[in-house]
Specification:
Layout lengths: L1 H7 L11 H13 L11 H18 L29
């Protein structure tokens, strides 16, 4: 079931077309809610967190994801909501 949800984040692209930087971008967004700045610009803690998460994911799906970038992940973003109180109308 996890792999099905995972593939939806990449617009249904087969595993053979996924690359490591694309998965890092999705993991970074899922963990921190921010766009992925690139692995080189991360501090050691964030980099280790992403690498550990990638290793767990690779173990779960049963294959190694190759280096590179090929697909842009589908990242949901929530727009700010402006709500105002209104009296109940009967």
């Amino acid at each position: 079931m996890v792999w099905l949800t995972f593939l939806h984040r990449f617009k249904g692209v087969p595993f053979s077309e996924l690359r490591r930087n694309d998965v890092y971008a999705w993991l970074y967004w899922a963990t921190y809610g921010l766009p992925f700045p690139g692995l080189q610009s991360l501090d050691e803690v964030h980099k280790a967190t992403l690498q550990d998460a990638l290793q767990l994911l690779q173990n779960r799906i049963g294959c190694e994801i190759p280096e590179g970038s090929n697909v842009t992940p589908f990242l949901l973003r929530l727009d700010p909501l402006s709500a105002a109180w209104r009296p109940a109308v009967s």
